[in-house]
Amino acid sequence: MPRQKQLTFHIQDLRCAGHIVEELSKLPQLDNFDMSSIELTIKENKPAPKIIRKDIDMLIDRLQRGFSANKHTVMQLNGYYLITNVHLAKWMRTTQASVNKWIKDGLIKPSKNSFTNLKFFDIDEVVDQLRKQKQ
């Protein structure tokens, strides 16, 4: 992934420099700082995370096939399958890092029926979440 671009401006080059310096001079924690060396840095927006649209159908198909073939090996608690991100990655034939990134970005969310601090997934919920990404 390419590095996020950023632009840096010297505050003295801006027309509003006087107002900014005046406002910052009022802060007691900046008493020992040189107000003529202020720089303004702006970072480029990151694109919204997403899963490639053409891959979603393939991921859903692999997930459903993997679950139906291996559900007898998955532990159950109170009638719920204890499916982890490791299972999802294995069944969708992708890396755990990809699945973890999707979870971190909010593209896939753990089941609301998770127990204790552990995060488990419901296959139907994951399929619905993947289908929402396709829209």
Automatic annotation (TrEMBL):
Q: What is this protein called?
A: DNA-binding protein
Question: Which organism is this protein's natural source?
Answer: Phocaeicola plebeius
